[in-house]
Automatic annotation (TrEMBL):
Organism: Caenorhabditis remanei (Caenorhabditis vulgaris)
Source domain of life: Eukaryota
Signal peptide stretch: none
UniProt keywords, alphabetically: Leucine-rich repeat, Repeat
UniProt name for this protein: Ubiquitin-like domain-containing protein
Amino acid sequence: MEEGCSTLVRSLEQKYLDDDDDIVQDILFTGFTGCSPCKMASQRALELLVLNNMNIGTIGDTDKFATLASHVSEADLGWNQISQWSDVACILKNLPHLRVLNIGHNPLNPVIDHELPVSTLHTIILNGTHLPFKTLQSVLSVLPKVNELHMSDNQFKEDDDCDEPISTTVRTIHLNRCGFQEWSSVMNVVKRFPNVCSVFVCENPLKDVTHCKQFEQLPFWNFLNLAKTSIDSWISLDNLSKMTSITDLRIPNIPLLDPLTNEERLHLIIGRIHHLRVLNGSKITNEQREQSERFFIRYYQEQKEKPVQYKTLIEKHGNLEKLVNIDLTPKKDAVVKLVCEEKDVNQEITISLEPTILEFMKCLEPKVGVKYTRMKLFLFRGDGRSEDFTSSSYNMPLHYFKIEDDDVFMIQEKIVVTKRRRPPSSTSSSS
């Protein structure tokens, strides 16, 4: 352990336990509902252990660690100074319920010099550890249930002499910020996980995606995240269209798409990659696909250079007429006539179409001299149609009714019938 480093047990006590050592010694076995975090830890109820960036160099008192942390299912020990595999072995051995382990950004020895016990981990985070493939293979060989592997912030050597599969159980692998510039570098890592389903390669200076033979040997690969990469050519998306097992793609924030509108990004990607089922987290419906394919055809109709998918889509949808730009933006105001025969009102006014019917009636009250609560409102259109506004339409905006200039609003005052009180009975009941 480096000079000045803390132990895991000491850091655990400082964060989760009282300073009184008696509490550590006095392990209670009663219910812990309503207890403080300190008491919960001392009652063996600690399940989530977060001790990242605490300058931890080794475990410390192994027996005490096994007692205090035996119920831990998730342990975050990232950004510490753990270097010895004997400490990793101690963690795996003494945490029987451990499912998630983060030992990323620790200076782990590149060569395993201690036997590791078999563990039931399902997620291990080794970001920034720069482990060789042989070492990674040895680690995962004692983790038969691991299905998610985090290897971001690592530098991988192209000439690594490990050609055998690293793990057949890993289904999800994270390779973000690994400095990949070529797709071959990505495949050099991914090909070592033959049953992989999901691959994250975000925030890499990757400029292209190419179809290669190694991809054909990964039949379960169906998800790819290329967010914040440096892809700047449609050729990469054409190559993705050849990788037919990938049905779920995330590709936001890349230079290629920066000049395009959101609508163009959506339609041009879907039109190019016919086998996609999910794009950037949104499911692609049959209606969405047809809309995108038709947009794709019209987008490239007038362009000299057409992508290879254009011919296929023409065969599917035929040559399409160019769409006429129609402004469907709702009108903001209209010039209408206001008529109230009872109050001798007949005038032309300009009204905003943004307010609701009820708000409009309140505005009419001073103009016609009828309280809005006693107002009956009708609309007569230029084509002879009419509209009778009832209470069910009061919360709807005026523009919903497609009001045009020269339409006529007619106001009538409701007749209020005063109820006559029943005269008091002349007879009274006796008790």
